[in-house]
Specification:
heterotrimer; A mainly alpha; B alpha/beta; C mainly alpha; A: mainly alpha; MetI-like fold; C: mainly alpha; 3-stranded antiparallel sheet; 16 helices
């Protein structure tokens, strides 16, 4: 039904455009130079005022329709049928009602549910038609009103452009709204979590066992939510990744800036971009298929017992993914060092290596540091490689051949599968997400600050 | 000569050399030097003798090749991709492209000061100490301190900075920075100092100070200065060479070039007809 | 200003033993640094090569599928022509195979015989009969996929050399397979099923159709949302907005959003779109909305850069003729900036195609056996399908995961190729 509503909007907008434009043309024929705007703008004015309010109406309707109908259904159920305070119960009943209404029967539903299902179907139909009628009515109304505003001296173009500017401002705010949305949703769910698990236990506890009994008859642990082992696991893998990526990235940049000729640069740069463009799920598969077994083989040859999802394997592949990041940022930083500095050093009789190490690298360090911090932030927030190659059990260890888990792995495993939205298990994922967001945000801000200060140095 | 070279072939290739019987022994000698940037030729058959312990000025309109030739002498053109140098250039009779002469040594012995002062983002002390340290000119810290002090003294900067040697070199004024760069070049005991328009980025007072310094330095170093300003060339140099579109047109004692130029192109440039 | 004493210091001996040795070691250090750089590049390139080699060497096998051509007798005793969908097709399958191997009489062996063909054989036969009931009572030659262990056997992955108890199929089963091969009943044609089938529990039947359609829908939604919104925002920020604290804040926000880990966007989608707005789980619409939030900063940044590259003289010329700012932007500036915008958008969409984590969190990793009919039907996407298959134990899925990755990389190469082509074709230098 939403499709038809949008169709109505589009059709009536076009009608409005033509109506407005012909009116505009009429003005020009009679008034000549007195007409402020081109006929097209008269048309656009009408079209935009038909389209926008109706569009907003449809969106609001679609978003609110679900909630309102849910309320109607719940209130239609007899008193005490379901405990209204238990939102998970409520949502279960609601989905049962909707399943029955759609004809997907699993066993015999209770008569209350069946009547509620019939009610749901009725209300759905009513709502759909009502929306269509409302949209039709609104568009016709706005068309007429807009048309009456048209006059030869009417500044249609200015009005239209103001609306467009308003739209653009609205679009610009989407970024802010998204950030607010992220912070709000993370805070809200994390707050729910911290109502059940104290912050101190979360931040300082060293046992992470989020398996809790979902129902009274399940046998499971009581659930410990001390996130320290998860944090250390994240740091361990990220550190291994940085150890792999930083030397390779920086030395690659040094070679490309100082020693490589154009031909080499033309070949190597695209290869680096290729490495950067490979989706992380591919790296994850590579880690599981090739790297982890190889690390294990090497370990057994050397006599070390290596876990099948060792931090070393996951960290190494993550490092591979980060190499192009560090390489290109270091390349930019080194190229930003003014050429005269390099020439000055060479003119004193320094070798290229001495110039690079004693003059250019120190001058480029802020830019390179910024790049390293951004890469670290990337490593900490990386998900797919570790979900596929790292472990699920939170062990507090710094040994690279052990299996550890990371924040992102835990977020994924806690939220995939059977999830009741209110259990501490799923809420813990949001608490972890909040920590992740804050940490990466800080790293990014510091990194950008350093890079900016450094750029000012050479302006 | 390249067929694909710039269409403007020089009218006459013979350089007019006005000899000076009192000229000092030759320090740098160039013979038939050509420079190509890719297909484009920038210098045509330049031959010149530069005497020691004096100032030789290269003058000429923009783009005439004087800076390009200057950069040949310390092989800085080698660092430019696609640049090719042919001909013989020798320092103290030794070919600078001789494999037995390390370019690193050459560049220490032939120092360079650039148009825009380029101190390293290090302390004043470290700026000066950079060269001596990498070449191993000082055996210990005391000797290094001595070299630093002496270089700054020779550049006339010591009194101004002796109390703040640890301050950043980039925090000095433009004129001080340029004298810092000159001190830096002096610190590695050069025999020749090349200066590529050293005063063009400086105000008149700083310029005067640098010119005074050049006048003192000529007692001990062979100085070659590229300059846009004929007045500066007249003030500072003993010999002057006039370049024009990649050719060395005329070279001789400075008063001679400025009062009695032999070539018409030199005459036109001096009198301001072009450039 | 200068001191009286200007004498040169004692001349440094450049040709002393010590000096020569020192220069030699300095040049050696220079060579070392150069070599370290080359080694670093070789490592990076080599790792990429190993990655691609691994993918190709495991994936190429999944592009063919071992099939067996067998005569299927549609026994009218098992199928009623009035209700063909309710026939006993399992018996038909059993009979088909026993007819090929008449000396297999042991019932356990006969059951094992049935495992030669894919598990869904009975449904395939049923579909054929339902479509054309006239074949009841006849024998039809059908080409059907063999089950995964035999597929691996034919492709040489399952080694015959291994001792029997370490293999998934025993010698007897191999004997049957070889007998069929000797009769010329085994073929390995191109595995179209990889592209046209949906996901399945059985590797020999699993395909990417659902995932490709799901990804397409999600990318479509992503484009439809982020392209106009991104350009509108960028045009406003670059051309109209006054330079004050608020616009700085917006800019900082955009730059930060571009660096937020993708999983956080998944959490946002889960909490807001699925939970608060109650949108259907696993729907490409929700996936597309989450992806558009991630692509938006990229498009804004790219558009701003393209707009900045248009020289101010263009704008001044338009304004000087009396056009309004809006008109100048729409008629003059935007068209000139369009190539850069398009290139950046395609690259942004290519990045979105490879995103997995946020789609996992909104549920696009469910086991779905048919392509989505619309934007609101549950679906998977290409990267999440890869993730699901990577987790599956059957050997056949390893090959198919690699093949799926190659398909994904293929799409990415095409998209990036188009972007580069556009950039070269339409690029203007000012």
């Amino acid at each position: 039904m939403a499709g038809y509503a949008f169709l109505v909007i589009i059709v009536l907008s076009l009608v409005g455009y033509y109506v407005g434009r012909s009116a505009g043309r009429g003005f020009v024929a009679t008034g000549g130079r007195e007409v402020h705007s081109l006929p097209g703008y008269h048309g656009a004015f009408v079209a935009v005022w038909v389209c926008l309010p109706a569009f907003v109406l449809v969106l609001l309707w679609l978003f609110l329709q679900g909630t309102i109908i849910d309320q109607v259904l719940i209130s239609s159920l007899p008193q005490g049928y379901v405990d209204l305070a238990d939102s998970s119960r409520v949502s279960l009943v609601l989905s049962e009602i909707k399943n029955v209404a759609a004809g997907r029967l699993f066993g015999d539903p209770s008569p209350e549910v069946e009547s509620a299902a019939a009610l749901y179907n009725r209300w759905e139909t009513i709502a759909r038609w009502a929306m269509l009628v409302a949209v039709l009515g609104l568009t016709i109304l706005t068309l007429v009103v807009a048309r009456t505003r048209l006059a030869p001296r009417f500044r249609a173009r200015n009005n239209f452009e103001r609306v467009v500017s308003g739209l653009m401002i609205f679009c610009s705010l989407v970024a802010i709204v998204t950030t607010i949305g992220i912070i709000a949703s993370l805070l809200f769910e994390a707050w729910e979590f911290f109502k059940r698990v104290p912050v101190s236990e979360f931040l300082f506890g060293i046992r992470w066992e989020p398996q809790i009994a979902l129902r009274a008859d399940q046998v499971a642990g009581k659930g410990a939510f001390g996130a320290i082992p998860v944090f250390t696991g994240t740091l361990l893998i990220a550190t291994i990744a940085m150890i792999v990526a930083t030397p390779i990235g920086i030395y690659t940049a040094i070679y490309l800036v100082e020693y490589a000729d154009d031909r080499v640069r033309k070949i190597v740069k695209p290869i680096m971009e290729l490495l950067a463009g490979i989706p992380t799920v591919v790296y994850g598969f590579f880690a599981v298929l090739t790297v982890a077994p190889a690390v294990r083989e090497t370990g057994s040859v050397l006599g070390i017992a290596v876990s099948p999802n060792s931090a070393l394997a996951a960290g190494a592949v993550m490092g591979i993914m980060i190499i192009p990041f560090i390489s290109s940022l270091s390349d930019d930083a080194l190229n930003a060092v003014p050429r005269t500095m390099r020439d000055g050093s060479l003119a004193l009789g320094a070798t290229r290596a001495e110039t690079m190490i004693k003059v250019m690298l120190p001058a480029a360090i802020p830019g390179i540091m910024g790049g390293v911090l951004l890469a670290m932030s990337r490593a900490i927030g990386e998900t797919m490689i570790v979900v596929m190659a790292a472990g699920l059990i939170a062990t507090l260890t710094f040994n690279p051949v052990d299996s550890v888990t990371t924040v992102t792995v835990q977020i994924v495993t806690l939220l995939i599968g059977d999830t009741e939205f209110d259990s501490p298990k799923t809420l813990a994922a949001f608490a972890l997400g909040l920590v992740l967001f804050v940490v990466t945000l800080c790293l990014n801000i510091v990194a950008l600050r350093i890079v900016q200060k450094y750029r000012e140095q050479y302006e | 000569m390249n067929d694909a070279a710039v269409a403007e072939k020089p009218v006459s290739n013979k350089t007019i050399v006005v000899e000076d019987p009192n000229m000092n022994p030759i320090r740098v000698a160039a013979k038939n030097t050509n420079v190509f940037y890719g297909q484009k030729q920038a210098l045509f058959d330049v031959s010149i003798d530069i005497p020691e312990r004096s100032v030789t000025a290269f003058i000429g309109p923009s783009g005439c090749g004087k800076s390009t030739f200057l950069r040949c002498i310390n092989r800085m053109n080698d660092t430019i991709d696609g640049c090719r140098v042919t001909g013989d250039i020798s320092l103290d009779g030794r070919d600078i492209y001789d494999p037995s002469l390390d370019v690193v040594e050459l560049r220490a012995r032939v120092g360079m000061v650039f148009q825009k002062p380029n101190p390293f983002p290090k302390s004043i002390y470290d700026n000066i100490a950079y060269g001596p340290k990498i070449h191993g000119l000082a055996r210990n810290k005391a000797e290094l301190d001595e070299i630093v002090e002496m270089s700054l003294q020779k550049a006339g900067l010591w009194n101004e900075v002796k109390d703040r040697l640890n301050d950043s070199g980039t925090g000095l004024s433009g004129g001080q920075q340029q004298r810092l760069c000159i001190a830096r070049a002096i610190a590695v005991s050069p025999e020749v100092i090349l200066m590529d328009e050293p005063c063009s980025a400086l105000d008149p007072i700083a310029t005067a100070k640098v010119e005074e310094l050049i006048d003192e330095l000529k007692e001990n170093y062979c100085i070659i200065i590229v300059t846009h300003s004929m007045q500066q060339a007249a003030r500072v140099s003993q010999r002057t060479a006039f370049f024009h579109i990649g050719i060395l047109v005329e070279v001789g004692p400075t008063e001679h070039i400025f009062t009695n130029p032999k070539d018409e192109r030199t005459h036109d440039y001096i009198t301001g007809r072009f450039g | 200003m200068s001191t009286a004493d200007m004498s040169l210091p004692a001349k440094f001996d450049w040709s002393s033993q010590a000096a020569v040795a020192r220069r030699r070691s300095r040049h050696a250090a220079d060579h070392r640094l150069r070599w370290i750089g080359i080694v670093a590049i070789m490592i990076a390139v080599g790792l990429l090569g190993i990655l691609l080699a691994t993918l190709v060497s495991t994936g190429y096998r999944a592009f063919v599928q071992t099939m067996a051509t067998v005569p299927v007798y549609i026994n009218p005793e098992y199928v009623d022509e009035n209700d063909p969908s309710k026939g006993n097709y399992r018996a038909i399958v059993k009979d088909t195979l026993t007819s090929l191997f008449p000396d297999v009489t042991n019932p356990r062996d006969q059951r094992d015989l049935g495992k030669l063909l894919t598990n869904n054989t009975q449904f395939m036969i049923r579909n054929k009969v339902v479509a054309d009931p006239s074949i009841i009572g006849t024998t039809v030659e059908m080409t059907l996929p063999v089950s995964d262990p035999f597929d691996q056997l034919e492709k040489g992955v399952l080694s015959r050399e291994l001792p029997e108890d370490q293999r998934k199929i025993n010698d007897k089963e191999i004997g049957w397979f070889d007998a069929l091969a000797a009769e010329g009943r085994i073929s390995t044609p191109f595995n179209w099923g990889l592209f046209f089938n949906s996901d399945s529990r059985f590797p020999e039947l699993a395909g990417l159709a659902g995932a490709i359609v799901g990804s397409f829908y999600a990318l479509l939604v992503c484009f439809l949302i982020s392209f106009p919104v991104g350009i509108a925002a960028a045009v406003y920020l670059e051309e109209f907005a006054p330079k004050n604290r608020w616009t700085d804040l917006v800019e900082v926000n955009i730059n930060n959003l571009a660096a937020v880990p993708s999983i956080v966007f998944g959490l946002l989608g889960l909490a807001v779109f699925l939970n608060f707005f109650g949108m259907p789980r696993s729907a490409p619409l929700v996936g597309g909305m989450v992806l558009s939030l991630m692509t938006l900063p990229t498009i804004i940044i790219v558009t701003r850069a393209s707009l900045k590259a248009v020289p101010p003289s263009i704008r001044e010329g338009g304004l000087g003729m009396g056009a309004s700012r809006h008109q100048v932007i729409t008629h003059h500036v935007l068209p000139l900036a369009l190539p850069g915008i398009l290139t950046g958008t395609i690259i942004g969409l290519a990045q979105a195609l490879g995103e997995t984590a946020p789609l996992l969190l909104i549920g696009m990793n469910a086991f779905i056996t048919s392509p989505p009919g619309g934007l609101l039907d549950a679906s998977t996407a290409l990267p999440t399908q890869i993730f699901i298959w990577a987790d599956s134990p059957e050997r056949g899925f390893v090959d198919r995961t690699s093949a799926a990755i190659l398909v994904l990389l293929g799409f990415l190469i095409i998209m990036n190729g188009i972007a580069i082509f556009l950039r070269q074709r339409l690029e203007r230098t000012w």
